[in-house]
Amino acid sequence: MPGVLAILGNLAPLELLLVGVLAVLVFGRRLPEVAVQAARILQRARDAFGEMRREAGIDDELRDIRHSVARTASLDPLASDPAEGEVPPIEADLASSQDDTD
Predict the structure, then answer these.
(1) Domain segments of the chain: what residues?
(2) Is the entire prediction scored with pTM above 0.70?
(3) What CA–CA distance (Å, rounded) separates 83 from 43?
């Protein structure tokens, strides 16, 4: 349902009214029946895509990648703020190389 709401969020109230009027004109009394059928089709498609993701292992791969990135970021010395007065290793190397050239 969030996907449908995201689409509706991009439409102005007048556009929504126009879509509603067109739906009533096209489907008439069958509109509730057609809406239920459309909802069932969307739910089946969502279930099928979810099953495909599980079978393909996409969710597991994404989870592994997130853990790997988080682990790498926590090991990165530049990822955390150095203590006051402390110079990170790379910047210290650059500072010492500049002192050598002066």
Answers:
(1) 2-76
(2) no
(3) 53
Residue 95 · residue 87 · CB < 8 Å: yes
If you ran DSSP here, which 8-state letter would residue 80 be given?
S
Q: Dump the DSSP string for 3-25.
A: HHHHHHHTS-HHHHHHHHHHHHH
- β strands within 1-102, DSSP E: none
**pLDDT tens sequence across 39-98:** 999 999 999 998 988 888 888 888 889 888 888 877 755 555 555 555 555 554 555 555
Could you report how far apart the first and last alpha carbons of the chain are, in Å? 65
Q: 91 near 99, Cβ under 8 Å?
A: no
